[in-house]
Amino acid sequence: MKNKIIYFGENVDGYKIPVLNEREIRAAAGILFLIMFISILIVLFKGDFLYLKYAITIFLTDILIRVMVNPKFSPSLIIGRLIVRNQIPEYVGAKQKKIAWIIGLVLAAITFLSIVVLNLRSPITGIICLICLIFLFFETAFGICLGCKFYSIFYKEKAQYCPGEICEVNSKQEIQKTSKMQLLIVLGFIAYIYLVVILLDNNFSKKPNNIFKTVSTTQVNKQETK
Questions:
Q1: Closest Cα to residue 36, out of 66, 12, 60?
Q2: Using an 8 Å Cβ cutoff, are 136 and 29 in contact?
Q3: φ, ψ for residue 10 (rounded to 5)?
Q4: Please, which pLDDT band fits residue 208 given cuts at 50, 70 and 90?
Q5: Which residues are CB-neighbours of 37 under 8 A, at least 6 positions away?
């Protein structure tokens, strides 16, 4: 008899295998990305690792619940579900998501052991945090599950129900095609930004003045002139 608490994926009519809602997964990835990103910025600018330790603990616990218990009980996925509750679900195969989250669990466990338990930092933990950020960013911004790419390595079968139907071999629709003109526009935009940085380097390097302080100083100078 199937355990009613510990299982992975939902059985939905019309789908042959257990699936998950990609929309709430993206929302949850965005939440975790924001927490990790802010904590890393605090480390970079203030040298304070306290918030990063909290973030790593939250990340590890959340992924651990997803993999070892049930995605339904993951706090970030629950919040994500509340955020996107009025959107039509986009179902994706649960198997490839589990592989991706197991990879995330391993990375989070290594970082937790190093930074939180042993209170050590190294380039390795920095790289791992960067990898986690990249995984989360691609998931929430582009709907691309980088960890899911490893599914075919562990299983000899083809993944089913991928986000955006990328598992299926389909020709691009007209709206998806990129013309040479569009590519030239992107290259031109990059060249434009490069040129602006060169020409306005001095302005970019200056620290902006406080507008209220500037106005106050101007008024004082006028009074002294009178």
A1: 60
A2: yes
A3: -115, 145
A4: confident
A5: 133
